[in-house]
């Protein structure tokens, strides 16, 4: 299995430290955003004292992300729970409202936690960004997956190019836990 390590995101790094000033936005409706005063979730709150499987992808409502990436995690959710994983998280450089609509369309909102990285700051800190302007997406996330325990990266898989789906799927990381 081919995987690449990125300096800040590499196995052995601690994402609570690397991305300490970044935050993500839980998928939600616009009205929920307004009522929460557009609250964000600090990285520490996501990873501290938890076993997390997290995967990043180029964009909500896009091809491989919709047809293969998210479904590979939904299909394996019970197996992740059996391995003691506290939550499975999907993150993308999108706003939380788009992520919410996409999660609902995929009927995955009750199974996976969806977060938006609206300005890409989380992905920038982890050096997991890519420019997908040619596909009219602009700066986005690489396609990747990670197993993170108390902020410590145990496994990181990054696709060679975002259109590939070889190493970042739910089946692969399930076998790495």
UniProtKB/TrEMBL annotation:
Main location: mitochondrion
Enzyme Commission number, as recorded: 1.11.1.25
Biological process according to GO: cell redox homeostasis; cellular response to oxidative stress; hydrogen peroxide catabolic process
Keyword Transit peptide: yes
GO terms under cellular component: mitochondrial matrix
Organism domain of life: Eukaryota
Catalytic activity: [glutaredoxin]-dithiol + a hydroperoxide = [glutaredoxin]-disulfide + an alcohol + H2O
GO molecular function annotation: thioredoxin peroxidase activity
Keyword Mitochondrion tagged: yes
Residues of the active site: 65
Record domain Thioredoxin: where: 16-177
Family from the record: Belongs to the peroxiredoxin family. Prx5 subfamily.
Its job: Thiol-specific peroxidase that catalyzes the reduction of hydrogen peroxide and organic hydroperoxides to water and alcohols, respectively. Plays a role in cell protection against oxidative stress by detoxifying peroxides. Reduces preferentially hydrogen peroxide rather than alkyl peroxides. May be involved in mitochondrial redox homeostasis.
Protein name: Glutaredoxin-dependent peroxiredoxin
Taxonomic path: Eukaryota, Viridiplantae, Streptophyta, Embryophyta, Tracheophyta
